[in-house]
Amino acid sequence: MKSTRSIRVTTFLSIGIVLVATIAWAGLGHVSGSLKRVDAFGGLKSRPEKPSTAINYLLVGSDTREGLTAAERKLLRVGSTKSAAGKRSDTMLLVHISKARDKAVIISLPRDTLATIPSYISSAGKSVPSVRAKLNAAFAWGGAPLLIQTIESMSNLRIDHYVEINFAGFAHMVDALGGIEVCTKRDINDSNSHLTLAAGVHTLDGIEALKYVRTRDFDGMGDLGRMQRQQQFMSSVMRKATSSGVLLNPIKLLNFFNAAMATVQTDSALNGNDLITLAKQMRNLSASKVRTLTVPLSSTNYSVEGLGSTVVWDPILSAELFQRLINDQAVIDEVTPSPSASSSVKAAPVIVDKFKTRTALENPCGALK
Known about the structure:
alpha+beta, Aminopeptidase, two-stranded antiparallel sheet, 10 helices, disordered N terminus, LytR_CpsA_psr, LytR/CpsA/Psr_CW_biosynth
């Protein structure tokens, strides 16, 4: 892999899901389910300081099959819950919502990131010393608390809330939105994901969408191609979730939120009142003010004995990025050039985007170059 822009970016945990869910709760008053809880911050010590009232969410996509029907597992060819015991964090996103609640930044954390996993107590009660491993190992070994501790130690950014979603949650929420439009410029026939699509524009239901974001073996580009498709799909989800056809349709909102409630797990401190308050505060947040990016990388193929190929964060750029989030500063800069000697007219500001961000307004077909 050669492009730092092409590392895995999740699709089904976009900020659009959070926004619509909170709006649904605030507007409809109640739903048929209740949030599932996980002790995400249990036992964490020496956590980073929090200098502002901005909010940081850690959103995790788990590959657990729990919640999928037998028919859905058959369509996906993913096997039963027993055949895939345990769960792995296939996707990790940090979502930073500004203290003014008018901007959001979504940062993808590659699962193969080379990380130092802090010492922890195993499920068998044994003390395990710190060790270098891939980032998703923290989730596999110690669940949400160990993953949060690892990310906080690497970024020095304090995580306020934790949200986890599985295969079933992704598929059911896509269905609740009425499907998501994708555009492929070449035929897809992937025998591993069992996805077949002709070139062109398609509206995918939940199961087909899950196949789409998992497929990687049809074009010879492997993870590189899959990551590009996932980024484009993420933008499509954001646009659909915040479209008038969804936001002004109480039935769709209720179905969407009930689908989320049935499969999403959150930290024990996140409650309905928090979501209602957040929804009211974020009225001014539009898709154009949501930026997505991958944490800056210095290597996408760093070999480590016993681990294989890993991804390494750029020590300078990643540190700057997280410091900006800690201070609730913008991740892009606007530089106003000085007027030339022959003109007193100010030139238009120049956008400096050293972190290579994108906005959620990106068109899925236009984005495929």
